[in-house]
From TrEMBL:
It catalyses: 6-phospho-D-glucono-1,5-lactone + H2O = 6-phospho-D-gluconate + H(+). Keywords: Hydrolase. Its EC number is 3.1.1.31. The lineage of its organism: Bacteria, Pseudomonadati, Bacteroidota, Cytophagia, Cytophagales. The gene is pgl. It comes from Algoriphagus kandeliae. This is 6-phosphogluconolactonase.
Length: 236
């Protein structure tokens, strides 16, 4: 596991874009699970504006680590955020985009999307394997859409699960731990002072961290990079 600390959200975004360009250039095809959230939004804007021309988008296949169960045109949709800030600005073939269909019944969509992963990704050890999973972390230590009060869903014996947001009750579809930790590489994009306590507890292996789903992100490959700004890293 590696921790990279940068001055600001913007410099985290630039550094991650450089990492992503190199990763994509190094492989014949790249299957990536995207995250929602404010830091990925900054990354998508940076990627589209300054790095897109360095990427052969025909070899990039995009998925989502989680999605809200809303229409793809809803302002809450992670797909819509990605469409607005990245997909509408780069020349990625539509057939390379595999969105979680949030408008469907959550439980059946979790099954359907789990099958999409089995069909589209390389199967390694009986499980579909991403080249890269991009994650954020909530102030409460959630990641993807696995929350502390639903942490047992991390270990669900399926590729995806339907989960309710602990406050709003909004249903979401999320990858499970067996898929996230099976990825060749995982990148955490975590910025802002609100994350500092959880980042400290997790990266310093404090006992309290066990309650946070983000602490369960431990890729079998060992390739996990935390991209942090100084605020999120301020207690390290
Ligand atoms: C979502 C994201 C979620 C996000 C965290 C961090 O659907 O909201 O997948 O897991 O990454 O909530 O979000 P911020 O980066 O905006 O703090």
């Amino acid at each position: 596991m590696e921790t990279r600390i940068f001055e600001s959200k913007e410099s985290v975004a630039k550094a991650f874009c450089e990492y992503l360009v190199k990763l994509i250039a190094s492989k014949p095809t790249v299957h990536i699970a995207l995250s929602g959230g404010s830091t990925p939004k900054i990354v998508f804007n940076e990627l589209a504006a300054h790095y897109s021309h360095q990427i052969d988008w025909n070899k990039v296949f995009l998925y989502w680590g989680d999605e809200r169960c809303v229409e793809p045109t809803d302002s809450e949709s992670n797909y819509k955020m990605t469409r607005d800030h990245l997909l509408s600005k780069v020349r990625i073939p539509e057939v390379n985009i595999f969105r979680i269909q949030g408008e469907n019944n959550p439980e059946s969509e979790a099954v359907r999307y789990g099958r999409v992963l089995d069909e589209q990704l390389s199967m390694v050890g009986g499980l579909p394997q991403f080249d890269l999973v991009i994650l954020g972390m909530g102030d409460d230590g959630h990641t993807a859409s696995i929350f502390p009060d639903s942490i047992a869903k991390w270990d669900a014996p399926s590729n995806c699960v339907a989960v309710a947001h602990p406050v709003s009750g909004q249903i979401r579809v999320s990858l499970t731990g067996r898929i996230i930790n099976h990825a060749k590489e995982v990148a955490f994009l975590v910025t802002g002072i609100g994350k500092a306590e959880k980042v400290q507890e997790i990266l310093q292996n404090q006992p309290s961290a066990k309650a946070y789903p983000a602490s369960l992100v431990q890729p079998e490959s060992g390739k996990l990079i935390w991209f942090l700004d100084q605020e999120a890293a301020s207690l390290l």
